[in-house]
Amino acid sequence: MAITHPPLPKSHKLAETNLYNLEFATQMFKALSDEARLRILNLIVKFGEMCISDLELVLDYTQTKSSRHLIYLKHSSLLTLRKKGQWTFYYLNPKFAQQLTVYIESLSSDQVLKNDIQTYNILFSNRELAAYKMTQRKYPSSVNRLS
What is the pLDDT of residues 9-25, one digit of tens each? Predict the structure, then answer.
């Protein structure tokens, strides 16, 4: 039996009309009903914002799966984004940040979520180390490489 996902919200403007109506609550709970989206939210709560490539690496998701869930969370008004050049960074919508943070932190003892944070920390430290090594590497001049 194939897993079906609920359709995207009809309007991502639900949160602008009334934060606490039944329609919005339904969409919010649907957004929180998926393990992949909870794992994404966990990382965003812990680290402030995430780009899709980092989520792909940490969660071992395809670009398609990551994008689909990020779009769902954005259309549900739980996430918002900022762009910097070619990069898109997702972060919690300030209107819901406090509630989402409390909820996600209540799941902090879950081993899968702990592993995601540990994986991120390892990957981040390795990236920082690699960047440092690249700045410290002394490359031979082009004349030396040709001889």
Answer: 454 444 454 567 888 88
Report domain extents, the chain.
Answer: 19-136
User: In angstroms, what CA-CA distances link 55 with 73, 105, 115?
Assistant: 14, 19, 13
Return the residue matching tokens 């690496």. 57
- Segment 109-133 shows an average pLDDT of 83
Using CA atoms, how far residue 105 sits from 18, 45, 109, in Å, is: 25, 8, 8
19-136: what fold?
A: Arc Repressor Mutant, subunit A (1.10.10)
* Block residue for tokens 């402030």: 48
74 contacts: CB under 8 Å, gap ≥ 6: 12, 80, 81, 90
> What values do phi and psi take at 54, rounded to 5?
-65, -40
Q: Edge-to-edge strand order for the sheet containing 79-84?
A: 49-51, 87-92, 79-84
Burial (CB count <10 Å: 0-12, 13-18, 19+), residue 20: exposed
| Mean pLDDT value across residues 72-81 | 94
**With contact defined as beta carbons under 8 Å apart, do 56 and 69 qualify?**
no
